[in-house]
Amino acid sequence: MRRPDGSRIVITGLGGLCGLGLDAPSIWQAMREGRSAIRPFVKVPQRDLKVQTGGEIVDLSTDSIERRRLITMDRFSVLAVLAAGEAIRHAGLDLEAIDRTRVGVTVGTGVCGWEAIEDSYRQVFLEGKSRAGVFTVPRVMPSAPSGQVSMQYGLKGPVFGVTSACASSNNAFAVAMDQLRLGRADIMLAGGTEAPMIYGVLKAWDALRILSPDTCRPFSADRLGLVLGEGAGIAVLETSD
Question: How far is it, in rounded angstroms, from Cα 199 to Cα 173?
Answer without folding.
Answer: 30
